[in-house]
Amino acid sequence: HLSSRLPDESSVEGKFTPGSNILRTSNSYFYFIMNASKDGYFQTAVARFPPSDTIFHQERIDLVIGSGRKGQTYLYWKNSDLFELPVTYWAETGEWMNSPGYPDGLPNFDKPIIPRCLECHATYIESLPPPLNHFDRASAVLGITCEKCHGPGKTHVEAERLHRTGNIINPAKLSRERQIDLCALCHAGPGNPRTPAFSFVPGADLAKYIAIPDNPADTPIDVHAHQVQLLESSRCFRSSNMTCTTCHDVHTQQRDTGYFSGRCLTCHKVESCGKYPALGTALLHKCVDCHMPLRESAVIAFDAGGHRVNPQVRSHRIAIY
Q1: Closest CA to 111 of 62, 72, 58, 74
Q2: Which of 53, 97, 155, 247 has the maximum number of C-beta atoms within 10 A of its C-beta?
């Protein structure tokens, strides 16, 4: 629900206080300053050249991407074209870092945001290319709202006014394949779009909208945004009828790994674990920690102060590691 929002005191997690609002780069003449005022939130590139020349480039934070649990990236509008801002806030360390795709030490503000990016971070926006990052700003429905999983609300309202029913999708009543497709729209990687972004509707066959690569069994799969492929490679998935909602309640914020371990124990017995003789019932809340460990993403990386950070994401390949 918080995957995209407008900037305000509750949505922007980055630190704007003096001493915490500067990103130094590998270029000793160049740095970023993050400022907050009554006029909004801003990122400013500052380049100082001896003896006294200084160049500034400033852009406003117009959209916040990410809930802030791990971090946030920010976007800005240039007329109706949407771009990624060069500085990201990394919550785990409380640091400002170069945004993914931006090289360290350069004052770039030019990375475009394409429709497929927003398809996973918003409920809707009308794309008006060219260029690919040109949108109808007024049409944006930010965050992941009810319609993303339950279908168009307008269609439902019109049907109810005509005393017709059946126009709202209940994902729990879909087949296993269509339930997985609904999650795979955003949790199986970007894929190769076959139709314009936001064409997919709940209950449809995702393959008609996005081609998701069918990787060979021994192909390494990155933990970022590939939860479906990792889950499908698991013996638990192949030998059962489980879906994403077997473990996840999408209407509730779920951060307790002990809860998910409880879901494991609806099928497995703790006594069957090879560690049980040594650890006993202490294992009851540890299933996920051992069998779905945190793994570094190789495709998402941040640069900060000359060092690189690869965020850790929970692997959805259920296995013995």
Answers
A1: 74
A2: 97
Residue 304: partners with Cβ closer than 8 Å, 6 or more residues away:
23, 90, 95, 96, 97, 98, 104
Express as a percent the part of the chain with pLDDT over 70: 98
- Would you list the DSSP string of 60-118? E--EEES-SSSEEEEEEEETTEEEE-SEEEETTTTEEEEPTTPPTT-----EEPPHHHH
Residues 6+ apart with CB under 8 A from 133: 81, 82, 83, 112, 113, 114
H or E, element range at 46: strand 40-49
Nearby residues of 181 by Cβ (< 8 Å), 6 or more positions away: 204, 205, 206, 207
pLDDT at 213: 83
